[in-house]
Please model this.
Amino acid sequence: MVQLLYASTLGSSMLTSEEIEKILHKSRSNNPRWNITGILLYRSQIFIQLLEGDEQHVNSLYDKIKQDKRHSNVTEIARIHGGQRLFSGWDMAFKELDDSFDLKVINEILSWNSRLSRSPSISNLQILKMLSYFREQIDGNMVIEHQED
Ligand SMILES: Cc1cc2nc3c(=O)[nH]c(=O)nc-3n(C[C@H](O)[C@H](O)[C@H](O)COP(=O)(O)O)c2cc1C
Model:
């Protein structure tokens, strides 16, 4: 099992909510086939996505995602082996980053100098803790966020 976290940026134009819906719909129909789970975090100019699953399947999905023209500067932030899934049961959870705490969390994961990269001082454990925080938030919003099968 691997947990791969990457970040990417959007071009000058923002994606519409319909386009985000399309990405989620596709993810939720494809990911169960490969037993991939995770979360997509979104904010006007940025995506952060966690992909969890068998490394071979995660790698081949990540290769496809890297080619996707809807985003660019796809940058691997962390690749964590031997952990436990944080998003089991979620073919792809989604959260639009909205409040200042969300952004603080993201700023701790990423450093924003000239391009995206991982904050030098952050450990994998801290990254997993931050992702757990999003997991808890989503659990608290089951009614709106939980996908129907
Ligand atoms: C930010 C972002 C996240 C994506 N996440 C997934 C994903 O989790 N699973 C998936 O199958 N496709 C995802 N996609 C779409 C893929 O890039 C690609 O279009 C899709 O996997 C093609 O599926 P198909 O081969 O069934 O047509 C994502 C695209 C973007 C831009």
Summary: The first strand starts at residue 2 and ends at 9. The radius of gyration is 14 Å.
